[in-house]
Design a protein that fits this description.
Blueprint: H1 3-13, H2 20-23, H3 28-36, H4 42-50, H5 63-76, E1 84-89, E2 95-99, E3 108-111, E4 118-122, H6 125-129
Helix pairs in contact: 1-4, 3-5
Amino acid sequence: MTADELATLVKSTFALSDYAAERYPADDLERVTAFFGNSLPPLFLAMRGLLRTYAIPGDHLPADEMIHDHQWEVENNPNFTTDHIPFYAIGNGDYLCLSRSAGTKSPVLYVAHDDPTVDTLHVKFDDYLIDADWFLHT
């Protein structure tokens, strides 16, 4: 999938949002890359840009929450490491994360608050974007 194909998918699946720009400020992507680095999956970066415009369901974290939750979890959760980049809050203390060390080839990881096993939900971020149970659920 390309960034253009992702944009087409999002435009055809989700409505425009009246509130998303409030949650995802204009500098959201810059703040994510400033803190976590710019070696992130290209489609993750493309998806971040679409969060400001479309009503994409689920709890995709804005930059300030990604950074805050990362810092808090590293300090307080023995299952969470500095390698984990939380981008989606499950709602029970669990997160979907990227792997810093995997860089642009990062899988999507399921990091639980109460289980030391880190599961690979998708072997690449592209697969997350076409998963009807996660990204495409409406």
